[in-house]
Amino acid sequence: MKRNLMTSIGAAALATALAGPASAAPADPLAANTQYTVLVKKMNGDGSTTLVDSANATTDADGKLTFNFTTMPTRPDTNFIVFEVKDTNSTVRQGIAPAPPENDPNLLGINNLSTVQTKALLAAAAEAGSDDPIMMAYALTLLRTPSATPGDATIIGKLGKGAIIGGFEAFLTDPAKGNVSTEGLAKLKECLIYNEAAGAKTLRDFTESFYNANAASSDAAADEEMQKAGGFMAEMFMDAAKCANIDLGLINAAHNAAGDAAEAIEDPPGTPIMTGLSPAVQIAIEQAMSTFHKRIAIVKVSGEYNKALAALNASGDERNRFLAAVSDVATAMGAVESQYAGFYVDPQAYADAHNSGDVAAAQADIDAAYQTVWNDFMTAMASTDDDIIAMTEKVVAGFRFSPGQLPGGFGKFMNSEGQSVNWPIPQTVMVSWLGDLMSGGGTFSYLNNRDDTTIPEWVKWMGNCTKAADFAPVCAQFGLTWDGNNCVGLQPDQPTCEQNSAFMWSGSNCQVRAEMLGSSACQGPSYYDASSGKCVLMGQMKDSCSGAGGTWTTARTDYASMPAEMGAFRDLLALQEDINIIDFERMSIWQGAGANPTGAEEAAAKLAFEQKLASIKNKIAATTNGTTSITAEQKAAIVKLIMQPSMD
Q: Where does the record locate the signal sequence feature (predicted)?
């Protein structure tokens, strides 16, 4: 057997089982029938440790070690507990776990990977002079290979201080960036260790996976359990952010800031510290960061959608189908971590066995697997055709206009595969909710207070292609000439003028009706815009407009000019367009040949995006009955659910 150590941590005297592996690691398993000393230490706030208790125990014939502790640190007295297993010469195994609440034991498995991680965490704590839970969570979840060297542990320790405290946390608390209060950051750290919300992931779940790994029936199963733990990072941070009431988008932006800070650290001066990592660790961390980005996007979307549905008091079949999709995507992400567990243990060995030695190909497979998870998630939470029909009926009834006035493709969007598919369930629920709101005497307005974010230069389809209307041929049809204002020539008297539907009497003159002039002056696929006096060429974009003889003007859609009977539905369309523009602005850093934004640029773009979304919700004016305003949470839900889901 290859089992190392299995333990249950609690506040009272506890039986602890230690069992052997060295799964995929260079260390030997614990020796059978051998005495070991187990030390329990608490980690202090300054990153140092203090011995709390110790016990001697002897392994059985299978290398299993059983012992009891009479004293165990608990929260809130300490954040972390450190375990050391010693033989007569040295420490042979180490493990670290969040301190449990009193009478609520945590589970911990100690093995070769936990030993490597603990060394890195102790180095990070010593370097930072802190037991910072965010720093600890990053180190635990990113260091996923047991082959890390002492040098790797030292580097990761320095990265913990510079990239996490100096990058992630500095971004969150910067008034010009995350603007998270000191209390908010402290709550985030607390919730990473212990979160009372039902189903919330914390570091307790991480260490429990190591316990399960040591209880596994095979080495492969053990590796899968340990790598599944590493995949918990996204859920841990998202759940902790919700617990601390921090916007989920800020966590993603802070993650980018941490990456930028890590790349900027040099040791020695002039040498990026990351280059000092051993190849296996460097590759495993790189992939773990990539996986985190994808996983956090999926968790963020599901979490934000769920919150929005709750704000709208959604219930019934649609909500149940959405929750089932969320449950399934969590299972699917765990399956990906299990499937590719061997990659994180030893990237090159995994690539040799599965990708003809091509590590990049193995990484591409992992990325593709997560893309499949995302695509399946989108399919699972798509509205049915019946959902869309029911939603459309509510919109028409609530906003009081003809079904023929709905935009083409209403209820559908283009997914990442370029396919036109039904809206996600939460978006359909939101628009149906608005329809019901309007039917019940509620109001909704936005047009008079639109957002003014500039349309990015690369957005080539938002605007108008116009050219001057040619009125001379129109006048000639009536035996008249164009004088710059109207058709002129021999003027009939008023009775004669009014007999021709193409003419109208104005003052003392007979003139060609404006609509007749416009409709005839604009040839081909175009229409006359009376407000500008120009022909609007249809089907043109910025790049093709000049070739069609027109002039391009980037502009928002003038929804106010649409038929008045469309009522507040025009406001909803305007809101959707403005939110799309804000999203386009966020994506601008990726546009252009060779675009390769830095982590700081990504963080800034995400921050500006979240800030503008928070601002635009305050421009919505809506009531439930004409007088009572909808809640701030409901406004936020409208803004969140009007956007299409994205992994960006």
A: 1-24
